[in-house]
Amino acid sequence: MKNNPPVVISLGGSLIVPKEIDWLFLKKFRKVILKEVANGRRFVIISGGGNTARLYQKAAAKTISLTKDDRDWLGVHATRLNAHLIKTVFRKVAHPRINKNPRTKEDLSSHFAQGEGVMVAAGWRPGWSTDFVGVILAERLKAQTIINLSNIPFVFDKDPKQFPDAQKIEKINWKNFRKIVGNKWDPGLNAPFDPVAAKLAQKLKLQVIIADGKNINNFKKILTNKKFQGTIIQD
What we know:
Layout: E1 7-11, H1 13-16, H2 23-38, E2 43-47, H3 50-63, H4 68-89, E3 118-121, H5 130-140, E4 145-150, E5 155-156, E6 168-169, E7 171-172, H6 174-181, H7 195-204, E8 207-212, H8 216-223, E9 231-233
Helix pairs in contact: 3-4, 5-7, 6-7
C-alpha cells in the first residue's frame, strides 16, 4: 500500500471547530486514521477554518470596514491554526511541517520519505479555498479521489436550508454538479465543494466524495470501499 497514492481528505472546519473545538470528534477520527496508517495507508489531511475563521472575521468587521483580502487572510490563518491542531493530534505519524503552499517546488513525496503516514495541509492564500488546495495536492501526489468531510451529508439539487423539497443526489457528474454550485467562490459560500476547485477537479478527472464527517462509521465504510451514505462526483 505504501506505493499507492495517499488518500486526500478535505476536513471541514465545521467538524474541527463547529462552535468549540470538537475534541471528541478528533479522537474518533484519529483512531480511524491510525488504524489505516498501521495497515500501510497514507493520508493527506487539509484542514478548514470553521468557527475559528468566522469569529475572527466577525470581530474584525465590527471594528473596521473589513476588506475582502483581510477577511480571506483571517480565514487562511484560521485553517493553519486548525492544521497545527491536526498535526499535534497525529504527532507520532505526521510529517512535522504543515504544507501551506501546494504549488511549492518541493517534492511533496518527501513528506512521507521517513515513513510518515500523514501529511497535514492548510489554506494557501486569499482567493483559494482549502478544497482547491486539496485538488492541487491530489494532482501532485497522483491521487484520484478526494474525500470531502464536513457537516453536509449529500449534494442536494438546491439549498435544503431554503427549500424543504430539496432532493439529495447520490451520484452526479461534474458538468451537472457545476450547474448547481456555479463558477465563483467566496469565503462565506455555503457549497458542498468550491466551484473553482470543481472546475479543476473536472479537468483532472478526479472523483470527489461528499459525506458527513460526524458519521464515523460511514467514514470507515468509505475507506474500506463499502456502501456508504454520501455523494460521488465523477465523470
